[in-house]
Amino acid sequence: QVQLVESGGGLVQPGGSLRLSCAASKIIISIYVMGWYRQAPGKQRELVATISSGGYTNYADSVKGRFTISRDNAKNTMYLQMNSLKPEDTAVYYCKIFRSGADYWGQGTQVTVSS
Asked: Is the pLDDT of residue 91 over 90?
């Protein structure tokens, strides 16, 4: 079945950077809109960024100018470059394929920003 596997999370100090990856299998990502979401403890899951099949991007106001979403269709992988990280960015980050009828989600990767 379709699998999305996130990686690249971890513990980083405020102001640091991380690069998340979302590797897809059993599906060709090139035709789909994809996105990154995050969920902090006690909070609802929120949309961080999306990227269309043509590479058009959109960001939540809270991450604009700090995060960059990208995709490499040849590698069937999506990325999230996160710079200038803040403690409030701490959350589990999930990748998603937007697909009519049934979206696909990854299992999540923990990002913790703390000194």
From this structure: yes
